[in-house]
Amino acid sequence: MSNLPKIAWIGLGIMGSPMSENLVKAGYAVTGYTLEQDKLDRLAAAGGTAAGSIAEAVRDADVVITMVPASPHVEAIAYGPDGILENARSGALLIDMSSITPQTSVDLAAAAKDKGIRVLDAPVSGGEAGAVEAVLSIMVGGDRADFDEAEPIFEALGKTIALCGPHGSGQTVKAANQLIVAVNIQACAEAVVFLEKSGVDLRAALDVLNGGLAGSTVLTRKKDNFLARDFKPGFRIDLHHKDMGIVTDAARNVGAALPVGAVVAQLVASLRAQGDGGLDHSALLRAVERLSGAQV
Fold it and tell me: I want to staple 68 with a disulfide (CB 3.0 to 4.6 A). Which of 73, 175, 245, 296 is the partner?
């Protein structure tokens, strides 16, 4: 029998499926629940166990990990008679790896404490590729003792792991991450259109730019998307729109000005309004192309 903690995983989407599978590979017993049967079948095929409900998944778990799209989804799976807090055992550790508002994380931690359940907010950065390769950056909010307990689990999922402060701090850092990523993608998209209209070899240009000060993880990960106009979602515009709302609201609350971020937030919103919300966030290139006169 393994001495590793038993894990319940709620939410097996683009990120949750490969992340849960990496825990199975690391030797953890993982019981998962999600709404899509094919995702449950995928986890079972990888060596995990499919559950028929949240209650069934979390009942015997030492650690419950959630990875769902937004604050309302976290609240839906956490609260109520069928939710995590009513069905997980006292003493369990709940790790929410979704990207949600800092206040939602703070409220969840307070509610869970009343049930004897400890909470960490631990959103991630790195996209689908980072999830598959287990090289995610994981930014964590909560108590040091709980972080130390969870660190071996994080090490099976990511490469850069940091406790950033009390409850909600992980979400605050994730909001800043999404601000930087959006602005970076927008700058790359503008550069791509400028380079193409100037008639240079785009592949060669992006390669040399990525080798200098203009280089970034964003350019490394999204270069082929730009070149091939392949916007299959790794991280959807819809979700980045949600995240830009989080960072804009959080910045307003603390009195931080985000002049460039506010412009990019509007560009993300406009792309979504034009029907591109289901595309990868590298599809910000389409918005720049439209503004530059292209029919896309």
Answer: 73
Residue by residue, what is the 3-state secondary structure of 207-273?
HHHHCCCCCCHHHHHHHHHHHHCCCCCCCEHHHHHHHHHHHHHHHHHHCCCCHHHHHHHHHHHHHHH
- pLDDT score of 233 more than 70: yes
The count of residues in the chain is 296
Q: Mark whether 174 is an active-site residue.
A: yes
Q: What are the pLDDT digits (tens) for 146-184?
A: 999 999 999 999 999 999 999 999 999 999 999 999 999
CB 190 within 8 A of CB 180: no
Token digits for 17?
Answer: 């499926």
Q: Which two tokens stand for residue 50?
A: 């499919």
Answer yes or no: are the C-beta atoms of 77 and 54 closer than 8 Å.
Answer: yes
User: Which residue in the list 39, 115, 174, 197 is annotated as catalytic?
Assistant: 174
DSSP letter assigned to residue 23? H
What pTM does this model have? Answer: 0.92
Distance (Å, rounded) from C-alpha 244 to C-alpha 226? 22
pLDDT value for 234 = 86
CB-based contact 179:257 (threshold 8 Å): no
Question: To which H or E segment does residue 282 belong?
Answer: none
